[in-house]
Amino acid sequence: MIATNAVFRYYIYLADDHHKLEPWLNSFKSQGFQIQAGIGRPNENPDGPDKFMKELEQDNSKVLVLQCWGAEMILSDALAQMDSTHLNPDLLLGQVTVLASNQLAWPDIISLIPLPASATKPYAISMTVGQMSRFKASAHHVYYACQPQDFDHPTMRLLSQRLPQLEASHLTLGMITRLLRERNRMVEQELREMDQQLSRIMHAHLVKEQKELKEAEELEQQIQTLSSAYGMLATDINLINEGRRRLQREWERFTLKLSQERTFKISDHQLESLGQPFLDTLNILHELYQSLITTRDSHQAAIDVVHSRIDIMNSRTNMATQENIRELMELNTDIQKQGLAFQLAAGLIEFIVLAYYSHSLWKNLVPIAYNSIPAALQLVAVLLFSGLTTYLTHLLAEYVQGRTYLKIRIISTSIPLFLLLMIILLASIIFNGLGFH
Asked: 89 and 220 share a domain?
């Protein structure tokens, strides 16, 4: 068994910020920190403590691991040396410091951890050989006190590789949780506003149900408002569901890594205690997701209600329009009947006037021929002439208005009228000539 003291420092940062940390990394190299490829193991170095550093990949982030150990090394001096290299905290996602020793007593190791008065209770982690506790000094700095039985290969792998990766995963979980809680707060605010808006709309419908029908513009505005809210709800549902699934995946990955670390002996109760903030967030997101689903369904029902009222209003309007059309058609029928009566009366008057004047004209122009023709033939000739002429004038009037299909009737009426005129003219000439001689 190797008796030694060791300090491990994990700096967690975004992989994209690696170039910004180059000057800072060079300062550690100038302090004697050597780049380490493997895991390494403490040894008795008479020249002083061993100092190593290496980088680990973890998703989109990186972890710089500093290691300093030695049997004669004083933990407080090693901490002071690491803290002497100042770094802009804005470049870091978080940092972890591990104080490990199998020489010092457990209370002496814990006494070296600078904790504020408001620090939370430490989280004890059971190990197969040894003991470990996790202290949260601030939002971005975590300390570990570790007292292993031996700095063997499993212990060194834990402290220099597995624990940094676990802390990076835990830090990712914390950032996702904070982001989702903030998103949850904003979505809850939107949800309250949309619920109030929906209540106002539905209350307005209930109050005015027995009153006059809403104007179409007002109902259409309500449809637009509800549809816009429905779209926001659909977006929020997707955001919350996506965040919930992401947090669930990260938590499962973290627990899988934790279960694969054989150096730890973590019970289900300890795991639940460690993941309580994340599990609480998952429950909150699930409840919000269900509330969003309910509100979305309520908005869909409200949209259907407003659509129904619009349909009812349109149907009533259509019924009123149809009633007006029916009244107009009845009025038009009455007008057509009156017009037909007027046309018949006008036609009769036209027929009588034409018969009278044609008879008088015939009598005055050729009196001898007129008196020579029997009265019955005169009556028939005058009636035929007046009737055909009256009918022809009506056909011509309709033809001029565009009813070209009457052309055949006009021709068929003009021929007998022309023949009748020729007969009357020839008869008048003949009878007038006979009477003259």
From this structure: no
